[in-house]
Structure formats: structure tokens, C-alpha cells
Amino acid sequence: MGLDNIVMIYNSEQEEYDNKIPKNISIKFESVIDSNLIGLGNNFSSEYNFISFSGKAYSWAVSTITDGKYNLYQDLKPNELEQIYLCFERFLSDIGEFYQDEITKIQCAYDNTMIVDNWISYFIDNYIPSPKEIKGLKELFRICYENNLSLYASY
Fold it and tell me: What's the CA angle centered on 142, arms 137 and 147, to 5 degrees?
């Protein structure tokens, strides 16, 4: 069993968090779909969407990029998601300045080695996300904090 992270919104009528994300907010997550985040799901209904992704795959990367301050095994409020977003922004800015050509080559390697990647995952505990996935996570965190959404760690 693994960790999934569920996007939650505060329901002021019930005074609790709810996983029923209104359509006008959930549509903003369409920009994340192309990043190929593992387990990214957007279950639709006529009134709302349910959005989740595999937190287990990305928790180590989040912890590394945030210098151990955050991981996806904890519930995260909008202010914490903003801090994570800023860490991802700095990370991508720092490596992007010097290694843009290399990042493109790395992404091409990821795109062509899913079988090798799946094989490697049997032997190591820490999944290493592609540059596209890192950008997708950054975008996901931005959308969450800008729309006052939280991430719930579900086991």
C-alpha cells in the first residue's frame, strides 16, 4: 500500500476539508496533466472533481528540494504548499540557468527509458522524477496555494 495525496478544499458550511473540488478550480489542473505525474487522477462528476496523485513516488524529491522541511507523508496547508512551490521555483531556476541543454537531454532519456526506469525502481527506494515531473509538481503546488487548497496524505 502506498501514499496518495488528495487535493482538498475547505468547506465553510461543514467547517471541514472536502475532496470535491469545484469545476472552476479543477480545470486549472489541466496544465499539470502533460507532466505525467504518477497516479495523477482527475475523477469527474457533473458538479465537482476529485484530484489525487501518487505522493509516495515524489515524497523523497519534495523532501530533498525543501531541505527536509516538508514531505508528502504529512497533510499540507496552503501556506506550506506556497513554501514548497518557492523551493521548487528556486531549484528549477538554479539548475535551469546553467544546465538547460542537459535538462532537455535528461527529459529525452526519461521519455525513452520507461522500461529501464521500472526495472530500476525494483532495486531502489527513492524514485527520481524527470524534469517534466518536477515542473508538474511545482505547478500543482502553485495551483493549490493560489486557490487555498490543501494536500491530504492518504494511506
Answer: 130
Using CA atoms, how far apart are residues 24 and 47, in angstroms rounded to an integer? 10
Q: Which residues partner with 5 through β-bridges? A: 53, 153
Separation CA 129–CA 127 (nearest Å): 6
pTM of the model: 0.84
Other CB atoms within 10 Å distance of the CB of residue 150: 20
What does the domain layout of the chain look like in residue ranges?
4-154
Query: Looking at residue 2, what is its pLDDT?
Result: 77
**What are residue 16's DSSP bridge partners?**
11
**Per-residue confidence at 151, pLDDT binned at 50, 70, 90?**
very high
pLDDT digits (tens, 9 = 90+) for 30-81: 889 888 899 997 676 667 899 999 999 999 999 999 999 999 999 999 999 9
Which value, to the nearest 10 degrees, does the dihedral of the CA atoms of residues 128, 134, 136, 137 take?
90
| Nearest alpha carbon to residue 91 among 101, 99, 81, 79 | 99
Q: How confident is the model at residue 97 (pLDDT cuts 50, 70, 90)?
A: low
In whole angstroms, give the CA distance from residue 9 to residue 151.
9
